[in-house]
Design brief:
- The protein is mainly alpha-helical and 73 residues long.
- It is built from three helices and no strands.
- It has one domain.
Length: 73
């Protein structure tokens, strides 16, 4: 697999050649894959519908907005 990294990141990586960046990437991929598998397992057992999730999201956004508004006023 070949990856492209932004120039700014490449500069930092080149300053630290003692680090095995391929291993860092492998570990990051492994960790992300584990997180996705865990999420898949949780979702497969969930009874929450997409509509329920949307409604819950709206309630959370509303509550957060109210909290932020109170802090500003």
């Amino acid at each position: 697999m070949t990856l492209s990294v932004p120039k700014e990141l490449k500069v930092v990586m080149n300053k630290h050649l003692e680090i095995n960046w391929s291993e860092v990437a492998r570990q990051a991929f492994k960790e992300k894959a584990s997180q996705i598998e865990l999420l898949d397992a949780i979702v497969s057992k969930s009874k929450l519908t997409e509509q329920d999730a949307l409604e819950l999201g709206k309630k959370i956004k509303s509550a957060m907005w109210k909290k932020q508004y109170k802090e500003l006023v």
